[in-house]
Amino acid sequence: MIHSCCMTILAYNLSAKIKDNLQKIEILRRQILLLPIPPKIELRLRWEASLQRTYWSLVLAGNSLGKADMVKLLSTQTRTKPSPEQKETINYKKALDYIREDWLISSRTISLSTVRKLYDIACKPTLGTNSRISANTKKLQSFIDYLQAGKESPIIQAGIAQISIINADVFGEGNGSIARLIPYLYLYKHGYDFRGLLVLDEYLRRDLFSLKESIESVGRNKHLTLWLEYFTNGILTQLRSAYKIASSSKFQTEIPAAFWKLNDRQVDILNSLEQPGAKVTNMKVQKKYKVSQITASRDLSKLVKLGLLFSHGKGRSAHYTKV
What we know:
The chain is mainly α. The chain folds into two domains: 2-248, Fic-like fold (Orthogonal Bundle); 262-322, Orthogonal Bundle (Arc Repressor Mutant, subunit A). It contains 16 helices and four strands. It has a two-stranded antiparallel ribbon. β1 (2-5) and β2 (8-11) form a beta hairpin. α2 packs across α4 and α9 crosses α13 (225-248). The longest helix is centred in the C-terminal third of the chain and has 24 residues, at 225-248. The radius of gyration is 20 Å and the shape is globular. The two termini are 38 Å apart. The model has no long low-confidence stretch (mean pLDDT 90).
């Protein structure tokens, strides 16, 4: 098979190793989908997986926040102005939420503007506007067009998308972050979210030598096969870990029990959003429950932090929908 990557024609073969990995991934995917997990346990497992994705990706980006600091940042209210590292963490998590909210099992076509939006959410607030993106649109467009026309497995698409972003290098300091977000975009679009439990970023960070060798093999051999063997093995490895964690309901982070508990008002807010298309605003919460703007904000913010609501817009135009 041929892939037009970064203006260079690169081939790849579905080697025996890739085929074996893909087969095992499909088996694990079915096992994870069928695993009986109580809703409250699944909520916490999903939340922790999102935290792990954020943590490991930002470790690779050189973010100095420790995991405990990220847990506190993403699970509690803070009134202080966030540091650059904290802002980077918050925005990366927002990018993951955007993928989950807008692209899970989507019939829409991933476009150049989609990839740019990932940069705008995850990187622009801390790195600013990147003029290199407009100057290198052809590099991005080449792999987007290829994947749009192709019939590859979503796993292969995700792997090609990641190496294409790595090699195109059009996002400057944010290139690594976008390269780690892009596989989730393609996986989620095709329904390969694995119940939100996949943490590919941990695999990338655990063995930097293998990561470097796999990336360099593409330029050296003008071939994607070794990269795709590495990538599919990463998905398989992390799914095995996810299945083990989910099967045992083993939590990886220590978070106060109060974080997971909802008061009657918060439960009622969720129940009021059961109808498709239903939404709520801060003002509606204030009026319905006779509470202050601050209390309404705390309720809605907690439901967002738990992964139960999605936030849309900013300021007075902000509204919330159920996940």
